[in-house]
Amino acid sequence: MPAQVVQDATARLLIVDDAPSNIHLLHQAVEGLGQVFFATDGESALVRALELRPNVILLDIEMPGLDGYAVFDRLKATPELQDVAVIFVTAHDRAPHERAVLDLGGVDFLHKPIDLPVARARVRTQLALQQKTRELDRARRDLAGVLDSLPGLVLELDEAGRVRFCNDRCRVWLGRPAADLLGGGIDEVLPVADRPALIEAVHSARGGGREVLELALDRDGGGGRHAQAVLVPRESGVLLLLTDITDRVFAERALAQEKERIRITLESIGDAVIATDRDGIVTFVNPIAEDMTGWLRADAVGRPIEEVMQLHDPIEKRSLVNPIRLAISEERTVGMALNCQLRRRDGRDFAVEDSAAPIRDHRGEIIGAIVVFHDVSEARAMAIKMTHLAKHDALTNLPNRILLQDRCLQAVEDARREQGRVAMLLIDLDRFLHINDAVGHAVGDQILQTVAQRLRAQLHGGGTVSRQGGDEFIVLLPGVDELEQVGMLAHQLLAVVAEPYWCEDRRYDLTASIGISIFPDDASDVETLHRHADAAMYRAKQDGRARFHFFSAEIEESLRSRHRLASDLRLALEGRQFRLHYQPQVAAGSGRIVGVEALLRWPRSGAPATSPAAFIPMAEESGLIVPLGAWVLGEACAAACRWRDAGAPTRVSVNVSAVQFLDPGWLDLVRATLARTGLTAGLLELEITEGVLARDLPRTLGIINELKAIGVSIALDDFGTGYSSLSYLKRFPIDVLKIDQSFVREMTDDPCDAAIVGAVTRMAQGLGLQLVAEGVETPAQADLLAQLGCGIMQGYRFSRPVPEEDLLRLLLHGTLTPDP
């Protein structure tokens, strides 16, 4: 709209007139519409026009030299100036000059004297027209660019079905320039196989309908291109858009071929295959599955998978969940349970092995599942053999890198989930290459096989030993509870490697260096765990070989502390540094001492006393608990004899660990100790925990019955903190129950603990068992225990553990009066 045109700083206006006054008036008329330039004669006007390339020239007709018509002719003869808009200006008669101007190609005519508003309006109109023309040209270029860049072929057909426009300028679709196609009939231009269908679609679209069809193009007889044609009616013809669907057509054909190939494969493979929908209803059964299940496809389709494929466990005599159900519900591939059998329709059973996997659509949604199964007889044996060969070292039959990597990843994931630890011990044989170089690889291989056997024997069924190649081995320990067990194992591995090797009556000696890394203390992943173990092994090599190093200095220092403790423990036992204290067990009503418990103390010279909670576990781990326990038993029995001889016979209770109790010489030790000290068996009570009972039930029951036959009493310590307590009370001849102090400590504040103590008291009374409450420290605890029916108590409320001599004085006094 011209009224909206404002000054365009880029527009250039050239005024050509020989009269300065006219130039001045025209300048006033066009001021503000652009940059204004002028010339006073025809020659200079042509020069200025070439320099400026003006948008509009206001050209006077009557000028000396070249008049306006001559200048106009020269302008139109100049290619660069042919499109300049020329408005003629004259003082002559309006009509004949205006017709002449327009006939020549002028765009407008101004008559002198100049009407300034009219002149301004006409110039502004020309500028607006030029602006719209530029925009239209730009739109046409953009549209042409869009059409040229479309991935499809665009054809515009006239009413006669002839090509009026084509965007195939690069001959991509039809192999001919677009210009060659113009005017040709659609059936001539498009080399399609089904010409009648195309012609019919064009006629239908011409009638006002939108048509879509697929065409096969046969360009130059080469074929190979498929297109989707969309025909849209136009006012004077039809617009045809072709989209290349060759890839889709080929993909559909390939899919159809693949489906047929899969069908033939499923029909011909040696495994049984059953497919179901997402509800577990059978949709497909191949011939092998028909034979194995006894169900024909026609009968099986539409039935639940459990009816067609009946699985059961022959050992536990129960039906098994079909893996199809698990695959669908858990959205994963599922293997068949062990000991799985398939019951055929005729009732016959045979072992099968299978896996089931969900079937997903293109969106990833589960639409069903498929199960593949077969007879396991030969296939299972072969699979096991092949799997073993793939994951084990050929020389030593140890797991190789592949299997170790799998186990490392699993161990780390388990430890991360359960907040546990995993240890990796990297073992490198020291100077092994010297043996290979000196006597050959045959001897070296024998030695490596022996090393593998020795290392594997030290794990006792736990962990993994792997050969990494050459003379390098790795031990993986998952589920590490105590770091000390890692160090102890490292010591054992060094020892067994260092034992002599005999090959062909010749002795060979080796040592090893071990690097240890702990997850998550030293590493957050398997790769780092291995790298740190390797670094620690290198450190062991640097420090002189035949040793091990932890990667973490803190862990290594902790282990050294435990080793020092174990060494000190051994020295203390040899030097008889241990002492026994005794804590009375008191009848709460009378204050009479009815028994004492022997408690081990270690008063270390020049160091604080070590708690039994610290050194008893170490003694059990190191095996020192057996001689230490024998010493405790002998000392306690001897003390009880002295109290008896002093006129204060008292039953003494001795704690027995699981390691002691199951030691082969334990029963003989008890008999020998009683005989040596002269103590009556009735004055000895042995305290065991539920953990002892759970170790080896038949053997434990036999030992307890032997002890009872001798006359020794059995007390169950820490009752209620273990597992299956009621079962133990029923199966084992227990005399005394000791309520653990953890229940006593909180019973006055925690109703649950009080209820537990009350229940244990009533149960002990019902079973005819004596009951002793440990850890009684306050009057409130003692009063509540008495109210609940517990009459014998032990704890600081009555007396701390005291030496033998102090206890004798308490025994001779007869009763204990609790502190107020």
TrEMBL record:
Domain PAS, chain residue ranges per copy: 139-209, 258-331
Highest taxon of the lineage: Bacteria
Domain spans labelled EAL: 562-815
Residues with 4-aspartylphosphate modification: D60
Gene3D superfamilies: 3.30.70.270, 3.40.50.2300, EAL domain (3.20.20.450), PAS domain (3.30.450.20)
Coiled-coil region: 122-149
InterPro entries on file: Biofilm_reg_signaling (IPR052155), CheY-like_superfamily (IPR011006), EAL_dom (IPR001633), EAL_sf (IPR035919), GGDEF_dom (IPR000160), Nucleotide_cyclase (IPR029787), PAC (IPR001610), PAS (IPR000014)
Alphabetized SMART domains for the sequence: EAL, GGDEF, PAC, PAS, REC
Stretches assigned to the GGDEF domain: 420-553
Alphabetic keyword roster: Coiled coil, Phosphoprotein
Residue span, PAC domain: 336-388
Domain Response regulatory: from-to ranges: 12-127
Protein name: EAL domain-containing protein
Taxonomic source organism: Pseudomarimonas salicorniae
